[in-house]
Specification:
Blueprint lengths: L7 H14 L5 E5 L2 E6 L2 E7 L2 E5 L5 H8 L4 E3 L8 E7 L7 H13 L1
Antiparallel strand pairs: 1-2, 2-3, 3-4, 4-6, 5-6
Helix pairs in contact: 1-3
Length: about 110
């Protein structure tokens, strides 16, 4: 059994993200026992505890704006106060932003 919690709603929201990214070349797999979208071998988006983690890059304006506005948190999958600095974690309450953020993450890996 997975140590991560998901819900029907978060799975459906991630399905929407996958539907947006797979046509541009993303593949779906698993990392951290979670659904993950990849660009080649680079993780782009992860469904993590009913939230989405996206890799925007630490110099990303979108990452800084989301963190400054309190609409996201740094993603710390280790849960040992060692966040992945290129990543943010966005809750299901901001589901309407998931696709936009995942597309921005995709763009940052293909530039």
């Amino acid at each position: 059994m997975s140590a991560h919690t998901h819900s029907v709603e978060s799975d459906a929201a991630f399905d929407d993200v996958a539907t947006a990214l797979i046509p541009v070349g993303a593949t779906e797999g698993r990392m951290f026992d979670c659904r993950t979208l990849y660009h080649v071998h680079t993780m782009v988006a992860v469904l993590y505890d009913a939230q989405i983690a996206v890799r925007l890059g630490r110099n990303s304006d979108v990452l800084r704006e989301m963190l400054a506005a309190g609409r996201a948190h740094e993603w710390d999958p280790t849960r040992q106060n060692r966040p992945f600095r290129d990543w943010i974690l966005v809750g299901l309450d901001r589901r309407e932003e998931w696709i936009r953020l995942a597309l921005a993450a995709w763009s940052s890996t293909t530039d």
